[in-house]
Amino acid sequence: MKLWKGVLSTMLVGTLLAGCGANSSGSDSGSSSGDGKTVNLKMFIAQPRLKEHYDKYINAFVAKEKKDKNIDVTVQLEMPPADNAAQILKTRLASNDAPDVFALHAVNEIPPFYKAGYLEDLSGQPFVSKLMDSVKPSVTTKDGKVVAVPLETISWGYLYNKKIFKDLGLKPPGTLTEMKAVVEKLKANNVKPFLLSYKESWIPQLFVPLTAGAMINTQNKDFIDRMNQDKGSFAEMKSMFDIIDLVNSNGTDKALEIGGDDGSAAFASGKAAMWIQGPWFAETILKSDPKMDFGVAPLPINDDPNATLINLSTSTSLAVSSTSKNKEVALDFVNYVLDDKDSSAFYEALKFNPISKVHTFKSYPWVNDATAYVKAGKSYQDPSIPQAVKDEAGKALQSYYAGQLSQDDVIKALDKAWKSYNKVNK
């Protein structure tokens, strides 16, 4: 998801204190406190917009740990913005300053992080048996080890305002030509077709997994393998600019000044009919307008209806550092994330999908929209594009929107980023 605004100095850091150990030193390895001990647990989760929900759940965990094990837990929750988080985390891990529990993108980051030895093997933990069979593979390494507990599983493409579509008699288009017709109908009725929010570079990069994923699924199936061998080029994906250009030329103003939170508020207020965005912003959108009726649909990229597909992904997941000095408590927390009694309310509050057999809440309407496409066979697994390439894509597509880079410049930047990734990860 992770899905995913400032600089390092503006990080949100929440410290939650509980129990009689709150005013003790709380060293990393834990210290004695009466009959129990005190543990300072460091967490790193790059979702500051959801801080209140994490705070509440962590407080409940702190109380449970005190009650069940007489351990006084102090939790230091660091929530950097998504644009900076990946680099900050990599720096931490490489400098032996790893958080005890940290969020990572399951599809993009588990393979390199596991290879580097950063991830604790969680295969024997109780939560593993609770995972849905459809979700478990996304947090499992190639050699069969479960190394994270998934938070967000996502079925996404773009968001659309159902009321606007219904009022104008529109349906989600199945081809690029049909999308152009939808755009013209919206413009004829003085409705901005697309909300543009490119202030944060991770948002424009969403075009890459959407377009490349659909093309890989239909016409270029060995693209990822060839790129990993320095034998491919994004020149093969140049038609991705057809939908990018359509969106950019029919969108709201001041795109480079609008981020995800502002975009959520604008979308909720009806400033545009569509937003190239995933449902991970559902909680933020509904906070602006609890009655907002929005749907999820697959993004057409060309005139092949078979290429109009939903992207299936597991994004934000929680791992335990292999070097943590507080593994007992860290493992207790990742298991509590799928607690039989408490996790359903937690996931529902976050507006995440059910991912476990213990989850009892109903799927949201936008989830059902996407699921209908999935059941019809119109979906693909999120392509394994290196995070470094996605990061470069975000910056390059910001510059492309601003007229500073050409299509060929963007392609060269993506190819270069992937080759650089290969050199480091051979």
TrEMBL record:
InterPro entries the UniProt entry points to: Bact_solute-bd_prot1, SBP
Keywords: Signal
Keyword Signal: yes
Signal peptide residue numbers: 1-18
Keyword Transcription regulation included in the entry's annotation: no
PANTHER family with a match to the protein in the record: ARABINOSE-BINDING PROTEIN-RELATED
This protein's name: Sugar ABC transporter substrate-binding protein
